[in-house]
Amino acid sequence: MNQDYLWIEALKFNDQGLIPAIAQDAEDGTVLMMAWMNKESIQKTLETQEVHYWSRSRSELWHKGATSGHIQKLKSLYYDCDADTLLLKIEQIGNIACHTGARSCFFTEAKISYQ
Amino acid sequence: MNQDYLWIEALKFNDQGLIPAIAQDAEDGTVLMMAWMNKESIQKTLETQEVHYWSRSRSELWHKGATSGHIQKLKSLYYDCDADTLLLKIEQIGNIACHTGARSCFFTEAKISYQ
């Protein structure tokens, strides 16, 4: 393994070998989606600079946007203090991250107060 | 249950009864941390308007900031298109979300390109 990538070995994957990855617009900070990555998808993301997740429903590597064209170009990547969550700062091609056509998957606001 | 909170029943919790929750600064969009919630912690968060997570390491309700003073005031809450991730927009009291004293838990940038 390339020495630059030793940090991947330090990540804490869950018992399915996965780690949650938050995708955030690198420019304006909008949180676009959360999905899961495994080691292979992280490596593929770094090799291509395009975000690859692990699809839990299809059990396969998921090159985000490969069919829709809405790929995510990786700008920077952070991991958190206990190394069990990733934050991907990305450029969202087409400005649509969600399969519904919305810009962000978080388009539903919940009611949070009584009355 | 209060009718306003029926959306909680529609959330998809994992087989431990948990759902990931991303905390984002409501003002400037900084992603501060990711932790887990269960139904009880969501309800407690809504009742108090202060964020409560579920601590997986201690297996207990975790009133964020109860000891440090760095509580998180809930401003708004979103769930994603498949209702399995929460996005909490918060006011971070003390401007410190991380137990290390950092503002955000995502303070470690990884090297993402060869050379």
**Uncertain residue segments of chain A:** none
Counting DSSP E segments of at least 2 residues, the number of strands of chain A comes to 7
Mean pLDDT of chain A: 95
Largest sheet of chain A: 4 strands, mixed
Organism (chains A, B): Planktothrix mougeotii LEGE 06226
Catalytic activity (chains A, B): 1-(5-phospho-beta-D-ribosyl)-5'-AMP + H2O = 1-(5-phospho-beta-D-ribosyl)-5-[(5-phospho-beta-D-ribosylamino)methylideneamino]imidazole-4-carboxamide
Pathway (chains A, B): Amino-acid biosynthesis; L-histidine biosynthesis; L-histidine from 5-phospho-alpha-D-ribose 1-diphosphate: step 3/9
Function (chains A, B): Catalyzes the hydrolysis of the adenine ring of phosphoribosyl-AMP.
The gist of it:
Chain A is mainly beta. Helix content of chain A is 13%, strand content 35%. In chain A, the strands form 2 sheets. In chain A, strands 2-1-6-5 form a 4-stranded mixed sheet, with helices on one face.
Task: Outline the secondary-structure elements.
The structure is a homodimer of 115-residue chains.
Chain A: H1 6-10, E1 19-25, E2 31-37, H2 39-48, E3 52-55, E4 60-63, E5 72-79, E6 86-92, E7 108-110
Parallel strand pairs in A: 1-6
Antiparallel strand pairs in A: 1-2, 3-4, 5-6
Defining key terms:
homodimer; 115 residues; mainly beta; four-stranded mixed sheet; two-stranded antiparallel ribbon; 2 helices; globular
Description:
- Chains A, B: InterPro entries: PRA-CH (IPR026660), PRib_AMP_CycHydrolase_dom (IPR002496), PRib_AMP_CycHydrolase_sf (IPR038019).
- Chains A, B: Homodimer.
- Chains A, B: Its EC number is 3.5.4.19.
- Two copies of one chain form a homodimer.
- Chain A is globular.
- In chain A, a hairpin with a 6-residue loop joins strand 5 and strand 6.
- Chain A is built from two helices and seven strands.
- Chain A has a four-stranded mixed beta sheet with strand order 2-1-6-5, covered by helices on one side. A two-stranded antiparallel ribbon of chain A has the order 3-4.
- The relative contact order of chain A is 0.21.
- The longest helix of chain A is centred in the middle third of the chain and has 10 residues.
- Chain A has 115 residues and is mainly beta.
- Chain A is 13% helix and 35% strand.
- The interface between A and B is large, with 39 and 39 residues.
- Strand 7 of chain A pairs antiparallel with strand 5 of chain B.
